[in-house]
Amino acid sequence: MKVAVVQLAYADDEPLAARRERVLELVRMQSGHDLVILPELWGPTGFDYSRWEASAEDLDGPSVQAFAAVAGEIGAIVHLGSIIERLPEAGVDGRRLANTSVVLSAAGERVGSYRKIHRFGFGSGEPKLLEAGDRVELLDLPGGVRAGLSTCYDLRFPELYRRQLDAGAQVFLVPAAWPMARVEHWRVLGRARAIENQCVLIACNTAGTHGGYRMGGASQVVSARGEVLAEAGPDEEVLSVDVDLEAIAAWRADFPVLADRRL
User: Fold this and answer.
1) Does the N terminus or the C terminus of the chain have fewer Cβ atoms within 10 A?
2) 116 counts as catalytic
């Protein structure tokens, strides 16, 4: 499976409409890949919370529609990163917004979505403004391989990835807006999730500066053995990586550590 990890850089002064057009063209340039993945909240921004209400949309909104057309045009699965979803009704916390990942098929159909379970902000930011997701979500990739969906801060909670593993995951898809101040955590946690679950990790972070935060970049693709197949630098960059999905089962058979789980 040929994967394009599109690590975007942007700043607060770039209008959302202009950024969307720029990103659409970047995705269109990835023709020939099987999967294209974008970062978390690249449209409304990950840290400028004041923009979220105005940029919220539903799951058939302008971003999803625009990228669905491009996915069909280039014949690739497109992981849109995430959007601020406007919920049809308030959730259990009384919020009408969620941080929601969306995945489009190579035919342009929505085949997966995931509302971020672990909200970052320690009582402010995401917990104050967004509903938390409550479902583990997986989707099927070419070749019958299952992929688990998670977002950014979720990486700090390994129990989510164990649940994805138990649901059949062999690949983890992780868009993020992870800041430079903790980029070493990003690197180590992503590799740990791959190693401990014997799963491929495809993690797409943000570059640039927004909301007063310098973003960490360092998007990475990690094999089920824990080998870093590719890693981005601190600036905007596209990683093009051939991922051997058959090697996942081979590694699990050669080193059957998961069979020794007791809990």
Assistant:
1) C
2) yes
